Each structure stands twice: as structure tokens, then as C-alpha cells.
Amino acid sequence: MTNETTINKLIEMRLTTLADTYRLQLADSSMQELSFEDRFGLLVDMEYTARKAKKRERLIKKASFDQPQANIHDINYTSGRKLNKSLIERLSTCGYIQDKHNIIITGATGSGKSYLSCALGMEACKHYFSTKYIRLPELLSELAVARGEGKFKEVIRQYQKYTLLILDEWLLIKLTETEARDLLEIIHARHHRSSTIFCSQYAPMGWYNKFPEGQIADAILDRIVHDSYLIEIQYIDKEHDRSMREIYGIKESN
Length: 254
Known about the structure:
This protein is α/β, with parallel strands linked by helices. The chain has helices at 3-12, 16-27, 36-63, 85-91, 95-98, 113-126, 136-148, 152-161, 177-190, 216-222, 244-248, and strands at 102-106, 131-135, 164-168, 195-200, 228-232.
């Protein structure tokens, strides 16, 4: 069998990185000094690294981040928001996901909740955890449509599968009875099975007012607050009391 035949077979099996690396090895005379085991190990390492990188790219794309440029290393800790750097750095290791815990991020509009949640979501993808970002109003709309099409349970199962779910604009407006029950199905399906990041303008004690009267609020909150890390984004003074969208938005050139 010729080397070119071997390369073509590798390409046919979609082992393109392996094929490219093998071709480079053939063109590099210094590779002849290495043992077969060493050369084979290099081939496997390149293919493995390429596949992991492609998987990471797929996870990031499927996550549908609102801010795909978010980076945990670019978080501004000096903008007057009283962010707990040690906690955020610890959460970025994704240990909370392995422990099936949640994160609650609270703060005013424009304080950077979405950016922080997306940055943590990016770290989850880098650790190869399936991740999904969605605004709560969009999720509730999706569930309502699914119910009408007879696919409600199917959608619930899909959201149960995500290792990390990021719910932005959490309880921004008051829920209807149906919306609250639908939300309970999602929260219950994920409880102690996976992790969720909740981004809200309100502290957990203020969430009760967003539910209709009854026990649904207790059932949902009991499944969230006791297993969650809390990140409160605050402001120190008037000088820093500016929206993160204003700080990082387009600046006019002089």
C-alpha cells in the first residue's frame, strides 16, 4: 500500500487532521529519527486535539450565547460593581456543574449580568459541558408553542439534557398560572441533575411577587435558592453608576 493510498483512506474516514499530519511527517526527514511509537503518538495527539477543538466550537455555537465574545478573563473588577473575584474565578473552573449546583446573578439593567453569565457559559463549553443560553420570555414562548403542537414533553426532555442552562431576564415580569407551571416542569426536571444560571434584576426574596398566588413559587424557589451560589452586582458610587453597555459601547472618535 502506498503512502498516498493510506492518506486517501484516512480522508475517506474523515480523519483529515491525521492525514495532514501524516503527510507532513513524510515530508519531514527528521521524523525518520523517531520510533514508530513516537510518530504514531504524534499523529494521534494531533487528531485528538483537533477533534476536541471542533467539539468545543460546536458546543459554543449550539449554546446560542447572547454575547459570544464574553470572556472570563475580560471581566472588569474595577468598575465599581463589587464583584467577588475569588468566587467568580472558582466558579470558572466549573466545579459547581460537577456538583449539580446553580448560580444566581442579580443586578440592575446594564450591570453586566448577561456578560458574566455568557463568560461562565463559555468556560462550561471549554470544559465540554453542553450549554444553552436563552431569555426566559423566549423559553416560555417556546413551551407554549410546544404545548399547542403536542411536543411539550419533548421540549422539556431537551432542556433537561443541557448540562448548563442559562436563563436570562429571569422573572422580569409576572408569570401567568400556565407559565409558572411550565417553568416548574423545567426546574423540576433539572433539579439535582444539572446546573442553571439565573440572571435577574431582583434578589430571590423579590421573586415571590412574580408568581401567581399558590404554592408554585415555593416549589420552584425551594429547588433553586438552596443549591445556588449568589453573585450580586452592585454599584459603589455615582461616578461608577453607569451601564456596562455605556462603558463598553461604541465610542465616537475625536
